[in-house]
Amino acid sequence: MNLEECYEAIDSDYDDVMRRLGSETLVRKFVLKFLDDTSFRGLKEGLENQDAELAFRSAHTLKGVCMNLGFTKLFEVSSALTEELRDKEIKENTTEMFEEVEREYTRTIEAIKGLC
């Protein structure tokens, strides 16, 4: 799988990220670094431990990273979860929203692993 196919597999805008970052080498470098990003792990840990502050910070970080990398679908669901957690409370529908993030995160990670 090449980089453009990776972006297609996760319903994201390859052309936009190329316009913003300017080089396939640079985009690829940062996309592969995403595999080491700990924000999803922090989000999951925060929710499991009912630590709304950690969950919010982690969701916010994940959202920002996804925005910068042009991971459109993962950005959208992590952004919605960030707003849900903004008042630092874990609510009834937080789990359902996290499951959407987890699905998109897993899909994104699997596509990136296809680059390796």
UniProtKB/TrEMBL annotation:
Keyword Phosphoprotein: yes
Record Pfam families: Hpt
Gene3D superfamilies per the UniProt record, alphabetical: HPT domain
UniProt keyword list: Phosphoprotein
GO biological process: phosphorelay signal transduction system
Domain of life: Bacteria
Domain HPt: residue ranges: 23-115
Protein name, entry field: Hpt domain-containing protein
Organism: Mediterraneibacter faecis
Sequence positions bearing Phosphohistidine: 60
